[in-house]
Amino acid sequence: MRPGRRVFLRVAGSAAVASAAAVALGCAASGIRRRRLGMAIDVRKCVAADGCRSCIDACHRAHNVPAIPDVRHEVKWIWKEPFERALAVEDADTITAALRGRSVTVFCNHCDNPPCVRVCPTQATWARDDGVVTVDAHRCIGCRYCVAACPYGSRSFNWVDPQPFVPSPLSPYPARTRGVVEKCNLCEERLAVGQLPACVEACPEHAMVFGDLRDPASDIRRLLAERYAIRRRPELGTRPQVYYVI
Amino acid sequence: MRDRGWILGAFAVVLVLVTWPAWRAVASAPPRRPDLPRPAGATACVAPVEFMRASHMTLLVQWRDRVVRDGVRTYVDSDGRVVTMSLSGTCIGACHTDKTKFCDRCHDYAGVTPTCWNCHVVPPAVTVAGGVR
Amino acid sequence: MFMFEKALRGGRGYWAWMTVLLAVAGAGAWSYGVQLQTGLGVTGLSRDITWGLYIAQFTFLVGVAASAVMVVLPYYLHDYKLFARVTILGEFLAITAVVMCGLFIVIDMGQPSRVLNVLRYPTPWSMMFWDMAALGGYLALNVVITRVTLEAERTGAAPPRWIRPVIVLSIPWAISIHTVTAFLYNGLPGRSFWLTAMLAPRFLVSAFAAGPALLILLCLGLRRWWRLRVAREAIGSIAVIVAYATATHVFFLLLEMFTAFYSQVPEHVLHFRYLYAGLEGHAALVPWMWASAGLAVVALVLLIVPATRSRDATLAVACAAVFVSLWIDKGLGLIVGGFVPSPLGAVADYVPTARELTITAGVWAVGAAMVTAFFKITTDVRASDR
Predict the structure, then answer these.
(1) Residues 6+ apart with CB under 8 A from C311
(2) Which residues are within 8 A (CB) of B30 and not within 5 positions of it... i.e. 6 or more apart?
(3) Percent of all residues in chain B with a pLDDT value above 90, rounded to a whole number
(4) Run of H or E residues at C262
(5) Which residue has the higher pLDDT, C82 or C295?
(6) A22 or A109, which is more confident?
(7) Nearest CB to B66: which of A3, A11, A163?
(8) C218 pLDDT exceeds 60?
(9) The dihedral of CA C187, C121, A18, A63: what is its sign?
(10) Which architecture, in CATH terms, is A35-245?
(11) Does residue C206 sit in the same domain as residue C297?
């Protein structure tokens, strides 16, 4: 047998081993119940920590996100946006003083019906079974159709070579090259080894709650059952899976 | 055909230009086979050496698609060992720790510049002298 | 194959013109090389305005390509004999425009070497897939049609019977390319400027004004400086088409404005306000948009009054006004206007860089050279038959 074929079979075999392991650990691919991952942000806790950048720094460090000084070429996975803009509240004067003029964390909503996935001409971006909308930078042709399609501004294009702008020390996560689109991947590389998303772990206010939205006993479901939560622009039918608890 | 001289002349010029790198390689001294150090501590690669020498890129592309597209991160090699499918983590991080003396040396010899390194920058923790390219 | 040898023989004027065009194309290619090396950061595009001049040119030129239908349809479906000698010019213009579209698409890509991924991973739910299929098919149709009909002209024989259904197919196909191009934009949630079913009709009607206007300008130029004769009555008929299409374009634009400004829904109003009045101190496109509006009015007057429509000089001014007006409206306003303000309310201006303008000029030079060569071939074929 030629080595090429043997190697291929090994890869296939290792997939079976890996999914068996996954079943044993009680997570994805069990075939009985798929996870639906999502996030809830306690807006009051988040805005109270004005000027806090813990989640941003942790995420951008973990994923080698460049710090490009030219705002036109900025790349960001997670950032703070004025509350009124992030949640499209037009009449800012009547908002409670606790929220007015404050900033809240925004990032990819990992929509249930993601327009970015719908428009991508090469399936370089797609939604996984557990709802994580991810990007294959190897396949991306850099057409930026997904950037136009995202109603949340969550996607960044690499206008220039990002690597000179990646702060050292580098993280093990692959960097990106110029000409491809990137965004929050809900730390799928950390989830795979049983860690929480970097932003969740770094938040000093414990304002970010991550979990399985299909599990009624999860922390996130309990929080959403207790308190009123809104999503960004739900009228667009994208079904965002990041909830802002008011 | 009064244009014959022009046509054949242009044809010859194009032929020389297209084959130029080959002529240059022939003219210069034949390069020595690169000296590739065996990784200390590691006894065997994930596949036979002959296969890896010729087809490691095929394997890496398979790994890439399994990890990125299917979310499967481990691989069982020909000896039954389970390894993490990662270029900078496993291949370089755990085995061929000096990329410059292994990957780069042979790629230079073969005259190829893989684009893998554009993104898969080896973190300084596992980079030895020479840094990342 | 395309009787190309005829494009390789010409007088001093022909070669001087071609040399100028190739020099501009060369400058564009050089600039593109720089863009390829350093990335799309050499353009004026940004995080908030991710499509600009390139994609706008693409959109405008799909319209020019589709507009060939305005001469093909009357001739082949209504047997409008006056257009007998002008249809092939329209089809050659379409071929050129589609090739320019392809160039602009590749130039706009961040990873152009991966362009074949669109075919390796065909994605029917992406409108870009259908746009590529529609444009590729349209190019193939027109290459076959022009080749066969011009060959028939050369030999003086009637074209083969099978070409007629191919030509008839090209008519709905032309409509489809610009409809699918509109679908690229008007199916995106959160981009309210484009989120209107009016977009495809607007695209088509502005194309049916700009494309034939360009064709008239070329025919007038050919009559004056070249041996290619196009009957005055044929040009007059195309002028009527341009008049109707321009009027309809203005009407459609006003319909859009009514919906936005009477409903007063901010996300519909703000894009128009940015384009025509400026927003938060950003007003880069305001003079352009008013120039477009002014030119449209001038063109409409000149096209509607029979005396000015039938005089070559005033008709040429009118057609140039239509072309420039619509180039601004579609080639600048429609694409950039859709990005400002951004979904998060960010307002920024987009100013193309010199590099970007050079690349764009290079593609237009390639197009001009193609049209010149095609028209030269047609002229020579017609000069040799008697």
Answers:
(1) none
(2) none
(3) 29
(4) helix C232-263
(5) C295
(6) A109
(7) A11
(8) yes
(9) negative
(10) 2-Layer Sandwich (3.30)
(11) yes
* C89 close to C378: Cβ distance less than 8 angstroms: yes
Using a CB-CB distance cutoff of 8 angstroms, which residues of chain C are in contact with residue A144?
50-51, 108, 110
Please tell me which of the candidates C50, C112, C189 has its beta carbon nearest to residue A237: C189
Contact call for B47 and A136, based on CB within 8 A: no
Separation in Å, CA of A43 to nearest CA in chain B: 32
CB contact (8 A) between residue B119 and residue A137: yes
Report the neighbours of C using a cutoff of 3 or more CB pairs below 8 angstroms: A
Above 50 in pLDDT, residue B126? no
The three-state secondary structure class of C342 is: coil
Q: State whether C346 and C357 are in the same domain.
A: no
Domain boundaries defined on chain A:
1-32, 35-245
Same domain as C371, residue C301: no
> Any bridge partners for residue A245, and if so which?
A42, A229
Relative to beta strand A37-42, strand A242-245 is parallel
- What ipTM does the predicted assembly reach? 0.92
Which of A2, A5, A6, A14 to mutate against chain B (most B CBs within 10 Å)? A14
| Structure token pair of residue C153 | 């002209």
The answer, yes or no, to whether residue A184 has pLDDT greater than 90, is yes
Average pLDDT over residues C3-19: 87
Asked, for residue C84, whether it belongs to a domain, the answer is yes
Q: Tell me: do C104 and C199 sit in the same domain.
A: no
DSSP string, A82-129: EHHHHTT-S-GGGS-TTTTT-EEEEE----SS-HHHHH-TT--EEE-T
Are C16 and C126 contained in the same domain?
A: yes
Helix axes C53-66, C87-108, angle to 10 degrees: 160
- Would you call C34 an interface residue with chain A, using a CB distance cutoff of 8 Å? no
CB A199 within 8 A of CB A210: no
Helices (H) and strands (E) in chain A, counts: 9, 10
Could you report how far apart the first and last alpha carbons of chain A are, in Å? 62
- For residues C194-207, b (16+ Cβ closer than 10 Å) or e, as one string? bbbebbbbbbbbbb
Least confident of A127-131, B55-59, C227-231, C251-255: C227-231
Distance in Å, alpha carbon of A18 to nearest chain B alpha carbon: 6
Q: What 3-state class would DSSP assign to A26?
A: coil
Q: How far is CA A123 from CA A131, A138, A142, B73, C81, in A?
A: 15, 11, 12, 21, 48
Vertex A117, ends A113 and A118: CA angle to 5°?
75
* Chain C: closest CA distance from residue A6 (Å): 25
Tell which of C49, C344, C355, C356 to mutate to test the A interface (max A CBs under 10 Å): C344
Q: Which residues of A touch B115 (CB under 8 A)?
A: 177
Instruction: Compare all CA atoms of chain B with the CA of A180 and give the residue at the minimum distance.
Output: B119
pLDDT per residue over C229-281, tens digit each?
Answer: 788 899 999 999 999 999 999 999 999 999 999 999 998 999 999 999 999 99
Q: Are residues C380 and C270 in the same domain?
A: no
How far apart, in whole angstroms, are the C-alpha atoms of residue C236 and residue C240?
Answer: 6
